[in-house]
Design brief:
It contains five helices and six strands. The chain has 195 residues and is α/β, with parallel strands linked by helices. It binds flavin mononucleotide. Flavin mononucleotide binds next to β4.
Length: 195
């Protein structure tokens, strides 16, 4: 996949919606972030709603068309933005399952976090995801967007209020994602990624 890409191609950014809960606000938060990503201009977006993606229930079973499609979708991306709530000081189980289904396709790419919750702002979900992605050789970016959905930063429908620091945080995260995605894509093309 990387060998076919030029360093000047748009960066393929997969925006992964981590919540599948009935009544969730995840898709609206992801739409807000995707709007900023489009305005940034460097990205070709793939918004991945885990509720809509058919995935095998079991890890390690025989390959299926669903698993192959998931692996191809992750492989195609140059960078990831994970939009996730905090549930019980962690992140949703559906997100963990989606992460664990594939391995090599994640490697040597950056991930940024857009998290939300109550007073925790999803920060504990982000910290746990940093550990998980380290195991998969994914570079988790320092800069992030973190939102308190009950403090006026997010409306009832899940749209983020632009009178807060959130737009600037999104811009910073997107700039970091662009830098890391371009650097790592060039490195993967040049030397591959193996030990
Ligand atoms: C099962 C559950 C557990 C939650 N636990 C936390 C928590 O530990 N910390 C926090 O800040 N918010 C917590 N919340 C609040 C959620 O982060 C918030 O409602 C968020 O909007 C949920 O994301 P969703 O609407 O996309 O499902 C919890 C919500 C649910 C449903």
């Amino acid at each position: 996949m990387d060998a076919e890409r030029s360093n000047t191609d748009p960066i393929r950014l997969a925006v992964i919606i981590g919540s599948t809960r009935e009544g969730r606000i995840g898709p609206a938060v992801a739409r807000w972030f995707a709007t900023h990503a489009q305005q940034h201009g460097a990205f070709e977006l793939d918004v991945v709603d885990l509720l809509e993606v058919p995935l095998p229930h079991r890890i390690g079973g025989p390959s299926t068309p669903e698993l192959e499609a998931w692996a191809a979708r992750i492989d195609r991306a140059d960078a990831f933005a994970v939009v996730t709530p905090e549930y019980n000081r962690g992140y949703p189980g559906a997100l963990k399952h989606a992460i664990d289904l594939v391995v090599d396709e994640w490697q040597a790419k950056p991930v940024g976090f857009v998290t939300y919750g109550g007073v925790g702002r999803g920060l504990r979900a982000a910290e746990q995801l940093r550990q998980v992605f380290a195991e998969l050789h994914v570079v988790a970016l320092r800069d992030a967007v973190s939102l308190n959905r009950f403090g006026g930063e997010v409306d009832e429908a899940g749209w983020v209020c632009d009178r807060t620091g959130a737009p600037q945080a999104a811009k910073t995260l997107l700039a970091r994602l662009e830098w890391w995605a371009a650097a790592l894509r060039a490195a993967r093309r040049e030397t591959g990624y193996s030990l």
